Amino acid sequence: MNWRDRLQQGLAKTRTALSRALDRIAGRALDPAVLEEVEATLIASDLGVRTVSKLMDRLREEGRDADRRGDGVRSLMKETVLEILGIPRGEPIGQLVQQGSKPFVILAVGVNGAGKTTTVAKLAQRLKQEGMMPLLVAADTFRAAAIEQLEIWGKRIGVDVIRHQQGADPSAVVFDGIAAAKARGIDAVLIDTAGRLHTKTNLMEELKKVKRVLARELPGAPHEILLVLDGTVGQNALSQAKQFHEAVGVTGIALTKLDGTARGGVVVAIAEELKLPVRLIGVGEAADDLQDFDARSFVDALFGKE
Length: 306
Hints:
Shape: elongated
Number of strands: 8
Strand order of the largest sheet: 3-2-4-1-5-6-7-8
């Protein structure tokens, strides 16, 4: 099964719910009752209030034409969502690293359990496969398990890991990571941070400190602040994205665990609300299940093909 097939499979629950609503439109007048039914399904898919409002406005304006029944309505919705996902259009991470300053620093942030450590490791593996030299930095010093997990990944993929002991100052680990990257001619530094609850002010302040140390030791760093979000939490992911963006200025999104969720529309909600590019999308545990986000493939998996 290739990656697009896994994406189709992962978004099957979301697609089924949307398809059922669109199928019920076929051959029916778009009266208030039908429109309300469609709107409820869109909201349940976690597309977000602003996105749903935009879709419903387009449906009311253009969907009454005879050629907008059934698959015509599906096409209209897909066109609208593609427009949302294309602003701003996100470059692939590999391209950012290749074209950016060296070492290119990627700071991964997000709450506990979102999959940061795994995402950072898989991304390092991809960059190495593309001919670059990455370095992993275990700045999640709150959990010994996170340090150990990153070290295991590092050995597996043949990438060095900069680490301190549990309880160390994360900023000190980052300081050593940047020094090592400069000395070794590293292309990309990938920093794993603690699973900070976006509601915990002291932890967010620690994250801001890490960002300040990076900027001091390497002007322009971090070059990418990648927010890793769990796709299964729906609108909570949007709330997290807003909080992290306000605190540290997120520049890209990596959405994980989209395999089997009925809330896959949250990708669109985040793009619409925050105008942040979705860089990466994960649909499973295997290394190649983390891929560059492709809006067209995602929309086809979300709404189905005509």
